[in-house]
């Protein structure tokens, strides 16, 4: 039986024309095994058959991993499959028109959240260019998902992927919902302790199951810090699929069978699989309503 989940909160959308030569140059550093490179709306709809909802966003990582999409693509996918997709905008604060693009994405295209990769755009979370972004999102009750953790891309300053930099922003903007993608790997301890301290910071575990020892340790640590209930399910499709991501979570304890090592509880496993961001990330404003 195929493992299921309620929502995949981390799905990348782009068409073939958005993939640049750099993407193929770097591909050897991505996880081993066969990966799908089809991430257009129709391919996503098929890939997301085993989830009720999928949060989708494009990437603007042209100079980091060689993908440069646009918010219109995301909005068109939501329009085509409104019962499956919820769209997030992407903000790149290096662009001179980034705030105009953000206003357009939210106010004209109707996207419901924002994605940002500080490590991929080379912009620190404390950069003044991000202040109007934070202010706008907080004012309009719009969640912000951020890539937190390392990457295989050479042109991506690794220091900018550390979740420790999130806390000052969370304190300054206490009503801004912030989601730390990939649980800050390999600095997952930082992500967990920040999420534990700050009520407006959440975690998601996309693209982690294929490093099972690291994944196991971060889930055990999250339980020890009583933060496991703040973790949401995601895949990072097309870099990982729904079934393999769900199976990797369900079977996380197999690697410690026959040992005295602690087990990740069934309660934690099920709470992640059936996590519902639409009840949490928007304060009193469910985007599905």
Automatic annotation (TrEMBL):
It comes from Devosia insulae DS-56. InterPro entries: ACMSD (IPR032465), Amidohydro-rel (IPR006680), Metal_Hydrolase (IPR032466). PANTHER family: 2-AMINO-3-CARBOXYLMUCONATE-6-SEMIALDEHYDE DECARBOXYLASE (PTHR21240), CATALYTIC_ HYDROLASE (PTHR21240:SF19). Keywords: Lyase. This is Amidohydrolase. GO terms for molecular function: carboxy-lyase activity; hydrolase activity. Residues 60-279 form the Amidohydrolase-related domain. Signal peptide: none annotated. SUPFAM superfamilies: Metallo-dependent hydrolases.
């Amino acid at each position: 039986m195929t493992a299921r989940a309620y929502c995949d909160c981390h799905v990348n959308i782009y068409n073939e024309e958005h993939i640049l030569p750099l993407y193929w140059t770097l591909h050897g550093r991505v996880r081993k095994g066969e990966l799908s490179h089809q991430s257009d709306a129709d391919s996503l709809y098929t890939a997301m058959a085993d989830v009720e909802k999928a949060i989708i966003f494009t990437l603007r990582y042209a100079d980091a991993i060689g993908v440069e999409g646009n918010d219109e693509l995301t909005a068109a996918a939501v329009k085509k499959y409104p019962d499956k997709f919820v769209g997030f905008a992407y903000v790149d604060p290096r662009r001179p028109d980034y705030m105009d693009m953000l206003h357009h994405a939210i106010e004209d295209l109707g996207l419901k959240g924002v994605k940002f990769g500080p490590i991929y755009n080379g912009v620190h979370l404390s950069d003044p260019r991000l202040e109007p972004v934070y202010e706008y999102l907080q004012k309009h009750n719009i969640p912000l998902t951020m890539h937190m953790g390392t990457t295989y891309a050479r042109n991506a300053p690794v220091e900018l992927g550390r979740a420790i930099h999130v806390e000052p922003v969370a304190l300054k903007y206490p009503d801004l919902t912030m989601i730390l993608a990939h649980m800050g790997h390999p600095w997952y301890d930082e992500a967990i302790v920040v999420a534990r301290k700050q009520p407006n910071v959440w975690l998601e575990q996309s693209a982690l199951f294929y490093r099972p020892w690291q994944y196991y340790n971060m889930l055990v640590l999250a339980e020890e810090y009583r933060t496991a209930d703040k973790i949401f399910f995601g895949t990072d499709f097309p870099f990982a699929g729904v079934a393999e991501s769900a199976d990797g979570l369900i079977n996380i304890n197999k690697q410690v069978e026959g040992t005295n090592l602690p087990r990740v509880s069934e309660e934690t496993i099920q709470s992640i699989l059936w996590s519902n961001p639409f009840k949490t990330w928007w304060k009193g404003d469910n985007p599905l309503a």
